Every structure is written in C-alpha cells, then in structure tokens.
Amino acid sequence: MKGMGVIFLVMILGLVVATFWDSFPAIKEGVHSALDPSLGALLDWNVTIGLLIITAVLNLITTVLHKYTTDQDLLKQIKDEQKIVQEEMKLYRSSNSQKSLELSKKSMELAMKSMPITMRPVLYTTIPFILLIRWFGDYFKDSPVKIFGFMSGIWAYIVFFIVFSMLFRKILKVH
Predict the structure, then answer these.
(1) Interval 103-127: pLDDT, tens
(2) pTM
(3) What is the Cα–Cα distance from 80 to 72, expressed in whole angstroms?
(4) Mean pLDDT, to the nearest integer, of 129-147?
(5) Cystine design at 151: which of 74, 92, 142, 156 (Cβ 3.0–4.6 Å)?
(6) SS3 string of the chain?
(7) pLDDT of residue 2
(8) Cα-atom radius of gyration of the chain, to the nearest Å?
C-alpha cells in the first residue's frame, strides 16, 4: 500500500483547494482568468456542444493518462482472476459456505491489489478536476442553462463524462 499515502495527500490538498475557493480570491480569479476565455467562450458559443467538446477532450486526456500510467497487463490479469473467482462464487454460494467465504476473501485481496495501480492517475487529475468543477459551478450559477432542456450543467458534464469514459476505454482498450 505504499504510494497510497501520496494519493491520500493529493486528495486532501484537492479538498483544501475546493474548500477555500471563495476564501482565497487568488485561486478563484486565477482559474477564472485561465478558463473564462477558453472553456467559457466555448460554452458561451453553444452550451450543449461546448460541454460535449470539453467533456470529450478532458475524458480523452484522462483515459490516455490512465492507460499509460498504469500497468495494463497486470490490471487485465487481475480482472481475469476476479472473473474466475466470481464464477466460482456463484457455484458455491448456496452449497458450500466455507468455500464461498474463501473465494470472497480472495476476491477482496484481488480488489486491494488493483486499487493502488488504478489510483495512480488520480495524482495527476485530482486538483485540476476539482478546480474545473468549481469553475463549472461558478459558470452555471451565473447562467442556469438546461442541457437538452432538463439537465443542469454539472449533471450534464457527469453524464457526458460517463458516456465518453465507456467509449474511450473500449476504443483504447483500457482496463
């Protein structure tokens, strides 16, 4: 679990930045001065298309980062082992509680083995994404637009991010 301390520290730092967004104007103004003329202009042009473009580009960046900062072969191996364990658990679920317990323990060990590997990209994306989410909050607070007539900006971003994530992970074969 070495390295998880660094990830935890980065996450705490991200939360501190998000918490003091309004208290330290330098943070907020700096982010706004960088994103208003770029992403803000794109959203001002057409909020739906702009949000789709922003989400697609950001998701592509994070997917590529995830692919090249993690050991994809090891993740695939762990995922394959987890599938086998899950299939065995289905077989023994009702008939052999001892075997089911052992398989459950093995499944947990595999999950704990993959966790530090999959968390590495978080080091690179936590703070920028927290700043971006705070900026989105400010942007859509001043302009309460509904995407496709029913979703607020931040919810649309989340939905688009999930869709693009599934798409890019499949295309780029990211585990």
Answers:
(1) 788 888 888 888 888 887 877 888 8
(2) 0.77
(3) 12
(4) 82
(5) 156
(6) CCCHHHHHHHHHHHHHHHHCCCCCHHHHHHHHHHHHHHHHHHHHHCHHHHHHHHHHHHHHHHHHHHHHHCCHHHHHHHHHHHHHHHHHHHHHCCCCHHHHHHHHHHHHHHHHHHHHHHHCCHHHHHHHHHHHHHHHHHHHHHCCCEECCCEEHHHHHHHHHHHHHHHHHHHHCCC
(7) 57
(8) 20
Per the document, the length of the chain is 175
86-90 long-range Cβ contacts below 8 angstroms, 24+ apart: none
Same domain for 86 and 131, yes or no, is: no
Q: What is the domain count for the chain? A: 2
**Residue 75 is encoded by which pair of tokens?**
């993740």
Same-domain pairing of 50 and 29: yes
Alpha-carbon span 10 to 30, nearest angstrom: 20
Residue 3: both structure tokens together: 């390295």
Boundaries of domain holding 7: 1-70+120-175
Q: Is 10 exposed, middle or buried (0-12, 13-18, 19+ CB in 10 A)?
A: middle
Which tokens sit at 135?
């900026």
